């Protein structure tokens, strides 16, 4: 029997390895949405329909509008919300035993675990102005604690954002009033058209009125996000779909099998 040339045998081996890796990839891709039974806890928050002004001319925006709620999905899942929760609850240590062989996770790794166990959704019903934050965990108390911490951090974030909006508006108005009193000609040029002196005075009075109004509102601002229902520990496990990144999953499992690289295993 005639032997194949050495280079053809090598190519066959390479093609075989590529085929094996492809097969493993397809299997793992099939499990990227694997379902597991976990305890799930949900906290519900609601937005007030109070408009706020962003400057002149006025640009009102209403908390709780459909467009606003869609944007808030990503805000709740963002690093500025989740990282303080991870730090507050020490999740880099708390999750280490389950996902990193007892070694402390990095904040990025802890956030990756949390994102795969976090769901932000709209409850049934039109114009409810509500968001539901659900967290899944092997431990019922952990699920409810994390869900409540996320909603509370989000509430504080929205409160801080509104306060910053008031401060910005107050600064803008104060600058216009100062300009009107120190340099009336430049103030008149900053206005649209060619307003008369009486119109300029009327506009100045309106600025003063808005300044006083903003100062009063900023002293006791309306609570934009209200927590309607805190999360409580679940009594039983339910099916939960783990949305995984198949590429990071393959890399993690291959490196673990070869004994190289990071030992972090996505959940």
Q: Could you tell me the radius of gyration in angstroms?
A: 28 Å
The best one-word shape is: elongated
> What kind of oligomer do you see?
single chain
CATH topology of the domain at 34-163 and 223-258: Bacterial polysaccharide co-polymerase-like
Low-confidence stretches: 28-32, 51-60, 245-266
Q: Helical content, roughly?
A: 55-70%
What does this entry show, briefly?
With 267 residues, the chain is α+β, with helices and mostly antiparallel strands. The protein has a domain at 34-163 and 223-258: Bacterial polysaccharide co-polymerase-like, CATH 3.30.1890. 56% of the residues lie in helices and 14% in strands.
Outline the structure in words:
- The protein is an alpha+beta fold.
- Helix content is 56%, strand content 14%.
- The protein has a domain at 34-163 and 223-258: 2-Layer Sandwich (Bacterial polysaccharide co-polymerase-like), CATH 3.30.1890.
- The protein has ten helices and seven strands.
- It is elongated, with a radius of gyration of 28 Å.
- The two termini are 51 Å apart.
Helices and strands, with pairings:
Layout: H1 6-30, E1 35-47, E2 51-52, E3 61-62, H2 66-76, H3 79-88, H4 91-94, H5 96-99, H6 107-116, E4 118-121, E5 130-137, H7 140-182, H8 184-190, H9 197-219, E6 225-229, E7 238-241, H10 246-258
Antiparallel strand pairs: 1-5, 1-6, 1-7, 2-3, 4-5
List keywords for this structure.
Bacterial polysaccharide co-polymerase-like; alpha+beta; 10 helices; 267 residues
């Amino acid at each position: 029997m005639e032997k194949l040339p050495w280079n053809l045998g090598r190519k066959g081996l390479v093609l075989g390895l590529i085929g094996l890796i492809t097969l493993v990839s397809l299997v793992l891709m099939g499990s990227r949405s694997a379902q597991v039974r976990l305890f799930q806890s949900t906290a519900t928050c609601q937005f007030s329909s109070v408009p706020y002004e962003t400057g002149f001319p006025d640009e009102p925006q209403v908390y709780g509008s459909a467009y606003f709620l869609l944007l808030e999905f990503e805000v709740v899942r963002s690093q500025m919300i989740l990282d303080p929760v991870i730090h507050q609850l020490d999740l880099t240590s708390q999750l280490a035993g389950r996902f990193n062989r007892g070694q402390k996770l990095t904040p990025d790794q802890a956030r990756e675990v949390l994102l795969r166990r976090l769901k932000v959704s709209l409850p049934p019903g039109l114009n409810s102005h509500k968001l539901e934050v659900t967290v899944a965990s092997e431990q019922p108390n952990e699920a409810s604690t994390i869900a409540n911490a996320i909603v509370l951090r989000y509430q504080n974030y929205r409160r801080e954002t509104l306060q910053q909006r008031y401060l910005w508006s107050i600064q803008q108005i104060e600058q216009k009033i100062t300009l009107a009193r120190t340099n009336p000609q430049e103030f008149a040029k900053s206005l649209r058209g060619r307003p008369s002196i009486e119109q300029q005075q009327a506009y100045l009075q309106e600025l003063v009125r808005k300044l006083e109004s903003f100062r009063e509102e900023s002293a006791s601002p309306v609570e934009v996000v209200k927590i309607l229902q805190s999360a409580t520990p679940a009594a039983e496990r339910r099916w939960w779909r783990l949305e995984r990144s198949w590429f990071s999953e393959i890399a993690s499992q291959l490196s673990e099998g070869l004994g190289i690289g990071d030992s972090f295993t996505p959940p």
